[in-house]
C-alpha cells in the first residue's frame, strides 16, 4: 500500500491528501530559491487528524514508508522559508484550522488556530462589532497570526511583540498528548478563564519552548488584542542629510524612552528603502544592479524623499495623545527638516487636492496612498502596502493594488537579514556602513529599516531582493546574506530569526545551549517525527 493511501485511510474524510504535481506546485513555490521536492501534503481539518498522522508516523518509523512531519500554518513566510521543509517530510498544512474563539470580549482575549490570518481575524472582529486591533505585519493579509507569533514576529501596533501578547498555548507533542499550562490543569471552574489571562502560569514556563522550535505542533494560541484607541496620530520626521542620522537616533531613543506606553513602535528608514516603495526600479526589474546615487537623487527629488524618515504612532485617550504630540514636538525641538502628523491640516489639504486633480498630482497621490495604507497598518488593519518591495526585481509580475499578492507564487526573489542592533548611535552607524559596503559588492540594493523593539534595542530588516530566475542573481543574493551574517556576528549583530539554510549552517550542535535543546527533543520527540533539524541541529 502506498504511503498516501495509508495516510488517507487513517484520517477523517474532511482531510485532503495532496500528491499531484500541479497541486503540489503551490507548496513548492518559494522566494528563497530553494530546490524543493515536496511529494506529499496533508491538509488537516481537525486536531484529531494531527494526532492520527503522528501515530501513523510512529508506527511506520522503522519501515520503508517512514516519514517525518513538517507543519506549516499558511506557508506564507516570505523570505524566510515560505512553505519549504528543511528535509524530506510530509508537509502538514494547518491552514484549514481557522477557528476563532472569543475568550472574553471585555478583556480582549481571543483564541486562534493556525489558519487564522490577519484578514480573517480583521473580518471576524468587524462582523462581531468588536473594536480591537489586529496584530498586523507587513507580510500581508493572508499570513497566519499564530505562525507569526511562534516565530516571535513583531509589528508597529501597541503590542509590538506578538509572542509577548500570547497568554496561553495549546501544543500537541509527538505522542499526541496535549500540553497546556499548570494553571489550566489546576483550574476546576467550568469557565476555565484564568489560564487565558496570565501568560506565565505556575511552575516552569513551557510555552516558550514551542516557539522557534520543533518540539511540538501548536494548534491554538490565546492572544491579547489591543482595544481600538480613542485617539490616534502618526508622526513623520524627516532629515535631509545622511549625516543627521545620529540626531535622528537620539530623537527616536528619547521618544521611546520617555513616552513608553503611548508610542507604538518607531521605524527609521533610509532614502533607498523609501524610494523602493514609491518608484519603479530605474534599472529595470531584471537587472542585478544597484541604483546609482544620481538615480536615487532623482527619485528622491520627484517624491520628496529625505535621507532618513522616522515613522511612529501615538495611541490613547484624546488628551493623552494631544499631550504626547506636544512632547514629540518638544523632543524634536526644531532640529528636524520636516515634521508631519497624520492629523495635520497639510495632509488633509493634500488628500483633497489629489481628489480634485488626480491627473495633475499623480506622484503626490501615490505618496498619499502609501501614507494612508501605512496608517491603516498602524491602526491594526492588514493590507499589502509593504509587499510590492518583494517585486522590486521581478521582471515577470508587476504588483497591483487590486490583486492579492503572493510573492512565492509570483516567483519573487527575497531573503531577509534581520539582526538585533543596540540602540546606540555608534553601533547603528557602524551597521549602516556594514550594509552599504557589503550589499553593493553583490549587486544587492542596500535598503535599510530600523524597527525599534524598545528604547534599548532595534531590529534592522534588510531585504535582499533579487531576480528569482537569474542563477547569477540567486547565487549573489545568497552569498550576500552569508557575508552580512558572518561579518555582523563579529560585531554582535545577531539575527533574531534564521531561515532553514542558516539554521543548518550557523547553529552548532555541540554548544551547551543546543545540547540542552537536543535533550529536550530526545525527551519529547524521541523518534524525531516533527520537523527534523528545525532550530535543533543534529549532533
What does this structure look like?
The chain is of the alpha+beta class and 539 residues long. The protein has 17 helices and 18 strands. Strands 13-10-12-11-16-17-15 form a 7-stranded antiparallel β-sheet. A 5-stranded antiparallel β-sheet has the order 5-6-9-7-8. A 4-stranded mixed β-sheet has the order 1-2-4-3, with helices on both faces. β7 and β8 form a beta hairpin. The longest helix has 20 residues. It is globular. The two termini are 34 Å apart.
Summarize the structure.
This protein is of the alpha+beta class.
- What is the typical, i.e. mean, pLDDT? 92
Report the biggest beta sheet as strand number plus sense, adding barrel if it closes: 7 strands, antiparallel
Would you identify the regions where 5 or more consecutive residues have pLDDT less than 50?
A: none
What's the arrangement of strands in the largest beta sheet?
A: 13-10-12-11-16-17-15
**Total number of strands:** 18
Which structural category do the helix and sheet elements fall into? alpha+beta
The end-to-end span amounts to 34 Å
Detail the topology: elements first, then pairings.
Layout: H1 3-10, E1 16-18, H2 21-28, E2 41-43, H3 47-59, E3 69-72, E4 90-93, E5 100-104, E6 109-112, H4 118-127, H5 145-150, E7 166-172, E8 178-179, H6 182-186, H7 194-197, E9 217-224, E10 231-239, H8 245-258, E11 263-270, H9 271-278, H10 293-303, E12 308-316, H11 318-332, E13 338-341, H12 345-356, H13 362-378, E14 412-417, E15 420-422, H14 425-441, E16 449-454, E17 457-460, E18 462-467, H15 471-490, H16 500-506, H17 512-524
Parallel strand pairs: 2-4, 3-4
Antiparallel strand pairs: 1-2, 5-6, 6-9, 7-8, 7-9, 10-12, 10-13, 11-12, 11-16, 14-18, 15-17, 16-17
Helix pairs in contact: 8-14, 9-10, 12-13, 14-15
Amino acid at each position: 500500500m502506498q504511503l498516501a493511501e495509508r495516510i488517507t485511510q487513517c484520517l477523517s474524510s474532511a482531510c485532503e491528501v495532496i500528491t499531484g504535481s500541479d497541486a503540489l506546485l503551490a507548496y513548492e513555490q518559494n522566494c528563497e530559491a530553494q530546490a524543493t521536492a515536496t511529494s506529499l501534503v496533508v491538509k488537516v481539518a481537525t486536531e484529531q487528524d494531527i494526532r492520527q498522522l503522528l501515530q501513523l508516523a510512529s508506527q511506520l518509523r522503522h519501515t520503508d514508508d517512514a516519514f517525518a512531519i513538517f507543519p506549516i500554518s499558511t506557508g506564507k513566510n516570505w523570505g524566510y522559508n515560505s512553505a519549504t521543509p528543511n528535509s524530506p517530510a510530509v508537509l502538514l498544512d494547518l491552514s484549514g484550522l481557522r477557528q476563532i474563539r472569543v475568550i472574553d470580549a471585555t478583556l480582549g482575549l481571543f483564541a486562534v488556530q493556525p489558519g487564522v490570518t490577519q484578514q480573517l481575524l480583521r473580518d471576524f472582529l468587524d462582523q462581531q462589532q468588536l473594536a480591537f486591533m489586529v496584530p498586523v505585519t507587513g507580510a500581508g493579509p493572508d499570513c497566519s497570526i499564530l505562525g507569526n507569533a511562534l516565530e516571535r514576529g513583531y509589528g508597529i501596533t501597541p503590542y509590538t511583540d506578538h509572542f509577548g501578547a500570547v497568554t496561553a498555548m495549546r501544543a500537541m507533542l509527538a505522542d499526541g498528548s496535549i500540553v497546556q499550562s499548570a494553571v489550566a490543569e489546576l483550574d476546576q471552574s467550568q469557565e476555565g478563564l484564568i489560564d487565558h489571562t496570565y501568560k506565565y502560569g505556575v511552575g516552569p514556563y513551557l510555552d516558550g519552548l514551542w516557539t522557534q522550535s520543533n518540539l511540538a505542533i501548536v494548534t491554538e494560541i490565546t492572544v491579547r488584542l489591543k482595544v481600538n484607541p480613542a485617539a490616534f496620530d502618526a508622526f513623520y520626521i524627516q532629515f535631509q542629510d545622511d549625516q543627521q542620522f545620529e540626531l535622528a537616533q537620539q530623537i527616536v531613543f528619547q521618544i521611546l524612552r520617555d513616552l513608553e506606553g503611548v508610542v507604538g513602535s518607531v521605524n527609521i528608514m533610509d532614502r533607498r528603502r523609501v524610494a523602493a516603495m514609491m518608484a519603479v526600479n530605474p534599472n529595470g526589474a531584471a537587472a542585478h544592479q544597484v541604483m546609482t546615487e544620481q538615480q536615487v537623487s532623482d527619485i528622491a527629488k520627484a517624491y520628496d524623499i529625505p535621507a532618513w524618515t522616522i515613522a511612529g504612532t501615538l495611541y490613547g485617550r484624546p488628551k493623552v495623545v494631544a499631550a504626547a504630540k506636544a512632547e514629540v514636538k518638544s523632543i524634536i525641538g526644531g532640529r528636524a527638516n520636516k515634521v508631519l502628523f497624520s492629523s495635520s491640516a497639510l495632509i488633509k489639504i493634500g488628500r483633497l487636492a489629489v481628489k480634485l486633480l488626480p491627473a495633475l498630482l499623480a506622484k503626490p497621490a501615490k505618496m498619499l496612498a502609501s501614507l494612508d495604507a501605512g496608517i491603516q497598518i498602524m491602526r491594526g488593519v492588514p493590507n499589502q502596502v509593504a509587499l510590492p518591495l518583494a517585486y522590486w526585481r521581478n521582471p515577470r509580475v508587476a504588483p497591483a493594488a487590486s490583486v492579492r499578492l503572493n510573492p512565492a507564487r509570483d516567483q519573487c526573489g527575497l531573503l531577509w537579514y534581520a539582526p538585533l542592533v543596540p540602540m546606540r548611535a555608534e553601533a547603528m552607524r557602524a551597521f549602516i556602513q556594514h550594509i552599504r559596503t557589503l550589499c553593493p559588492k553583490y549587486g544587492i540594493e542596500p535598503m535599510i529599516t530600523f524597527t525599534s523593539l524598545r528604547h534599548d534595542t532595534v531590529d534592522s530588516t534588510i531585504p535582499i531582493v533579487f531576480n528569482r530566475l537569474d542563477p547569477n542573481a540567486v547565487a549573489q543574493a545568497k552569498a550576500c546574506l552569508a557575508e552580512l551574517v558572518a561579518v555582523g556576528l563579529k560585531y554582535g549583530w545577531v539575527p533574531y530569526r534564521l531561515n532553514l539554510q542558516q539554521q543548518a549552517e550557523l547553529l552548532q550542535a555541540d554548544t551547551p545551549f543546543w545540547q540542552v535543546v537536543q535533550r529536550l527533543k530526545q525527551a519529547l520527540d524521541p523518534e524525531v517525527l516533527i520537523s527534523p533539524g528545525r532550530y535543533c541541529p543534529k549532533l
